[in-house]
């Protein structure tokens, strides 16, 4: 058995007496697509925020590649190889699509990004990453447009693309299809499935068909805790999941 | 936490075109033309000096407001302390011109580093309030240390040393035009330097922070470092401007370090055009010239600044530079249309 | 010796009540409208000048106590309807710039109308005497000031706590959506609150006129102090504005004879420390 890439031990996020995340122990194996699902208010997004470093956790531990990152700020986690996308599209609206991707690639440069004297040409690597990503996302034709002028579906794809630009070992995707039209969803599904070949992916998602079709492992959360964990097949057949989640949907 | 306070800036429509359709070579040439023509066009070389000195301070302010999105009321601290440090070093240690200017830039930069490091611990209105409180503190400290600063009377008899190398005088700067020469050379260097900073990896990250700080942090930038460095650079430039201003006046008034000085620099920045280096020159030039022409005729001309400030925020976010740009675009559009018609 | 301190403390309370009246308007507007008003000091100034004019024309201070705040409030109401409401949705930066513009205009127009030199306003005849409390003598006007401002504070508290208007303002400070759901015209509520907050600054200007006169450069100074009070008290907090206003007033008054610049230095340092350590104020809700 390989050691997990990301592990949480007894992770807790409390707002007063309310425990949004309550003693979660999650293990994400390298090279897998691992999805977290659950009914509204199950604590998925709170869990996500704990992992990205957006929220300071109330208890427990987070390990990335065996290293304790519990107290690391969000930007410090990116440097280790964790990148995230946002549930509500969060781009540099007035900057060009290419610049959005280039900035995302440059984000891993650490102190070198503070270089205020040499022209950008001397950091050509990031521009190359951006161009590569434009191809991959099929956005090359729109590279020079402000990101804010893209269609909603393209903005969602750019959102995910920015996370990939950091060449992360772990991609944290927060409801990548949220608000997407039916037409755009297959593109996103394909993109995520492709990503699964090179990256480890943690996916928080509402859309069941995506989760069931591309995940290696699914964790079902309910009321801040892990209810069930297993393969899509096992989860689909689990009675507890049906009552807590699928039953509710039906 | 009050969610209202952390809402990211919405509806911020600063000129996207400035980022996409930059013509740095053309604007740099225009800047050079203005710098050369200025002493011939304006009534006196002293006034021309004043324009470029304030344009430097506006360059510094623009780096924070225009490129990073930080509204700092702290600029007077850097401007005033630059003036005091240069003046005191020249009076008490008899240092030369360039040493005095370097010391002023270092003082401005260091103080800005300190102010920045404190102020960026908060965002939004609390950030603004912190810069405001620190400026007030600096003012009252300068007022109290009247043995050094001259207090309310200002620091008198600030020298204007010649350009000298190893004790050998190259140029005397006593005539306003000669001093303009020095100010102009320094301004051109600072302008080109600012251009480089904005085109660097650092500068591109500042824009990212201005656009969406949460996202900038999420892609891996420690935004605090960038904001503090922006402060330090801004403070160094502003401190240098303050030193030149003291040499121009042969005097360092207490008002250099007062809140209205910050306001004046901010207003010049906004009216000229935030996020445009050439706009810095436009803003400083317009306001210094207006002040000179109108203050004798109509002492209440500052009223116009109030109106202009409101007008820029309501109707012309890009300031004078933005206005010129859209005018240029409209004319280009019209020209294309006539060509097509023909 | 003790009497000197008592004297200074009473003076400080009077000053503090004036600070409270300015700051409570500022904090009310910030709390409900999430709007930063850098023109607040200018409205205070306008109150002082209108008091001067009314007293010069009619010789009646009491009339100015009624008319000047009303006039300032009316101006604020008009400004809100024409300009201010268009910038509620903008980032604070833009609100600051626009209100800074308004402050500049008011200041310059005041100088055009009343001249660059400060005007002094006589103490109303009825209150020119002193009050004797044993060995201790104190000017009547200053005592009146404390009492009157306290009455206004109580009335304001009742307005906020006991009326439907107050309930709406308080609810709106929590979440404006709730108030819209109640079917209230949120824009009218905003206009009234803005006018009320500014009128309070005008009232403070009137009350301070017999003490400090009307001087065009008081505006920025008062604005600075008002921000100190609002920040120390906690933005949006009524009780905080009262406690911090009194505190700043008493500190300034006690230090006025010893080291006046020191008192200003101290209050701004206190403001910076509070923002850094307790951004919601000493008395605000976290």
Could you walk me through the main structural features you see in this protein, from its secondary elements to its overall organization?
The complex is a heterotrimer of chains A (250), B (342) and C (286). In chain A, 36% of the residues lie in helices and 23% in strands. Chain A is an alpha/beta fold. In chain A, the strands form 2 sheets. Chain A has a 6-stranded mixed sheet, sandwiched between helices. In chain A, strands 1, 2, 3, 5 and 6 form a 5-stranded antiparallel sheet that branches. Chain B has one domain (3-341): ABC transporter involved in vitamin B12 uptake, BtuC (Orthogonal Bundle), CATH 1.10.3470. Chain B has a two-stranded antiparallel sheet with strand order 1-4. Chain B starts with a helix and ends with a helix. Chain C is mainly α and 286 residues long. Chain C has one domain (13-223). Chain C starts with a helix and ends in a 9-residue tail after the last helix. In chain C, helix 1 crosses helix 9. The chains are: A alpha/beta (250), B mainly alpha (342), C mainly alpha (286). The interface between B and C is large, with 46 and 43 residues.
Topology:
The complex is a heterotrimer of chains A (250), B (342) and C (286).
Chain A: E1 6-15, E2 18-24, E3 27-28, E4 33-37, H1 44-52, E5 59-64, E6 67-68, H2 74-80, E7 82-84, H3 97-106, H4 124-136, H5 152-165, E8 170-174, H6 185-198, E9 200-204, H7 208-214, E10 217-222, E11 225-230, H8 232-237, H9 239-249
Parallel strand pairs in A: 4-9, 4-10, 7-8, 8-9
Antiparallel strand pairs in A: 1-2, 1-3, 1-5, 5-6, 10-11
Helix pairs in contact in A: 3-4, 3-5
Chain B: H1 3-6, H2 16-20, H3 24-41, H4 45-65, H5 75-93, H6 97-119, H7 124-144, H8 146-149, E1 155-156, E2 163-165, E3 168-171, H9 176-199, H10 201-211, H11 213-218, H12 223-249, E4 251-252, H13 259-272, H14 277-297, H15 302-315, H16 319-341
Antiparallel strand pairs in B: 1-4, 2-3
Helix pairs in contact in B: 3-4, 3-9, 4-9, 4-12, 4-13, 4-14, 5-6, 5-12, 5-13, 6-7, 6-12, 9-10, 10-12, 13-14, 14-16
Chain C: H1 2-33, H2 40-58, H3 61-82, H4 92-114, E1 130-133, E2 136-139, H5 140-162, H6 164-174, H7 176-181, H8 186-212, H9 218-233, H10 238-256, H11 260-277
Antiparallel strand pairs in C: 1-2
Pfam family, one (chain C): BPD_transp_2
Protein name (chain C): Branched-chain amino acid ABC transporter permease
Subcellular location (chain C): Cell inner membrane
């Amino acid at each position: 058995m390989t050691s997990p890439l990301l592990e949480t031990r007894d992770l807790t996020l409390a707002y007063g007496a309310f425990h949004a995340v309550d003693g979660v122990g999650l293990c994400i194996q390298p090279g897998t697509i691992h999805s977290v699902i659950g009914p509204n208010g199950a604590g998925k997004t709170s869990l996500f925020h704990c992992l990205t470093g957006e929220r300071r956790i109330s208890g427990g531990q987070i390990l990335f590649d065996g290293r304790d990152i519990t107290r690391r700020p969000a930007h410090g986690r990116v440097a280790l190889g964790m990148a995230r996308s946002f549930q509500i599209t969060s781009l540099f609206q007035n900057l060009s699509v290419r610049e959005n991707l280039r900035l995302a690639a440059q984000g891993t440069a650490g102190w070198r990004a503070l270089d205020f004297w040499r022209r950008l040409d001397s950091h050509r690597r990031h521009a190359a990453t951006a161009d590569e990503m434009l191809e991959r996302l099929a956005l090359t034709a729109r590279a020079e447009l402000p990101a804010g002028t893209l269609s909603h579906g393209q903005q969602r794809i750019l959102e995910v693309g920015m996370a990939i630009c950091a060449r992360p070992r772990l991609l944290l995707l927060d409801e990548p299809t949220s608000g997407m039209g039916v037409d755009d969803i297959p593109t996103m599904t394909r993109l995520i499935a492709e990503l699964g070949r090179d990256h480890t992916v943690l996916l928080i998602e509402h859309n069941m068909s995506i989760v069931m079709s591309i995940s290696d492992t699914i964790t079902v959360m309910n009321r801040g805790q892990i209810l069930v964990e297993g393969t899509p097949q096992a989860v689909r057949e689990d009675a507890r999941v049906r009552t807590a989640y699928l039953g509710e949907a039906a | 936490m009050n969610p209202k306070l952390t809402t990211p800036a919405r509806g911020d429509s600063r000129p996207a075109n400035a980022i996409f359709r930059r013509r740095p070579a053309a604007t740099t040439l225009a800047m050079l033309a203005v710098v050369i023509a200025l002493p011939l066009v304006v009534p006196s070389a002293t006034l021309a000096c004043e324009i470029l000195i304030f344009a430097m301070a506006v360059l510094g302010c623009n780096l924070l407001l225009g490129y990073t999105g930080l509204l700092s009321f702290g600029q007077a601290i850097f401007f005033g302390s630059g003036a005091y440090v240069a003046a005191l070093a020249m009076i008490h240690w008899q240092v030369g011109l360039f040493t005095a200017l370097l010391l002023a830039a270092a003082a401005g930069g260091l103080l800005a580093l300190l102010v920045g490091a404190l102020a960026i611990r908060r965002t939004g209105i609390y950030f603004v309030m912190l810069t405001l409180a620190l400026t007030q503190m600096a003012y009252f400290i300068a007022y109290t240390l009247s043995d050094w600063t001259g207090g309310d009377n200002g620091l008198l008899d600030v020298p204007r040393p010649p350009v000298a190398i190893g004790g050998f005088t190259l140029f005397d700067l006593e005539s306003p035009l000669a001093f303009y020469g020095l100010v102009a050379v320094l301004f051109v260097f600072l302008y080109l330097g600012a251009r480089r900073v904005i085109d660097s990896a650092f500068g591109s990250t500042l824009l990212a922070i201005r656009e969406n700080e949460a996202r900038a942090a999420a892609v891996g930038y420690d935004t605090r470092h960038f904001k503090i460095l922006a402060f330090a650079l801004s403070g160094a430039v502003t401190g240098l401007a303050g030193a030149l201003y003291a040499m121009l006046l042969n005097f360092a008034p207490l008002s250099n370090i007062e809140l209205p000085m910050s306001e004046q620099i901010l207003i010049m920045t906004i009216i000229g055009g935030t996020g445009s280096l050439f706009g810095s020159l436009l803003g400083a030039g317009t306001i210094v010239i207006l002040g000179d022409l109108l203050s004798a005729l109509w002492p209440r001309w500052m009223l116009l600044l109030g109106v202009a400030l409101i007008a820029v925020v309501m109707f012309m976010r890009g300031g004078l530079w933005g206005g010129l740009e859209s005018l240029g675009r409209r004319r280009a559009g019209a020209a294309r249309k006539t060509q097509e018609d023909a | 010796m003790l009497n000197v301190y008592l004297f200074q403390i009473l003076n400080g309370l009077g000053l503090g009540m004036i600070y409270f009246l300015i700051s409570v308007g500022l904090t009310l507007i910030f709390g409900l409208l999430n709007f930063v008003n850098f023109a607040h000091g200018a409205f205070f100034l306008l109150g002082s000048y209108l008091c001067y004019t009314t007293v010069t024309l009619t010789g009646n201070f009491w009339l100015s106590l009624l008319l000047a705040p009303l006039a300032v409030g009316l101006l604020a109401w008009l400004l809100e309807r024409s300009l201010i409401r268009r910038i509620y949705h903008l980032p604070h930066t833009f609100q600051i710039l626009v209100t800074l513009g308004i402050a500049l205009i008011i200041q310059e127009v005041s100088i055009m109308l009343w001249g660059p030199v400060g005007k002094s306003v006589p103490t109303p005849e009825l209150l020119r005497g002193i009050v004797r409390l044993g060995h201790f003598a104190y000017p009547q006007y200053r005592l009146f000031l404390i009492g009157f401002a306290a009455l206004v504070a109580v009335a304001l508290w009742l307005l906020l706590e006991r009326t439907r208007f107050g309930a709406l303002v308080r609810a709106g400070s929590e979440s404006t959506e709730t108030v819209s759901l109640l079917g209230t015209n949120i824009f009218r509520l905003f206009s009234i609150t803005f006018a009320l907050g500014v009128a309070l600054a005008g009232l403070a200007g009137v009350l301070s006129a017999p003490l400090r006169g009307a001087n065009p450069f008081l505006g920025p100074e008062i604005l600075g102090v008002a921000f100190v009070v609002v920040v120390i008290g906690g933005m949006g907090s009524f009780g905080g504005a009262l406690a911090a206003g009194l505190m700043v007033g008493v500190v300034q008054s006690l230090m006025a004879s010893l080291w006046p610049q020191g008192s200003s230095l101290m209050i701004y340092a206190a403001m910076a420390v509070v923002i850094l350590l307790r951004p919601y104020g000493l008395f605000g809700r976290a």
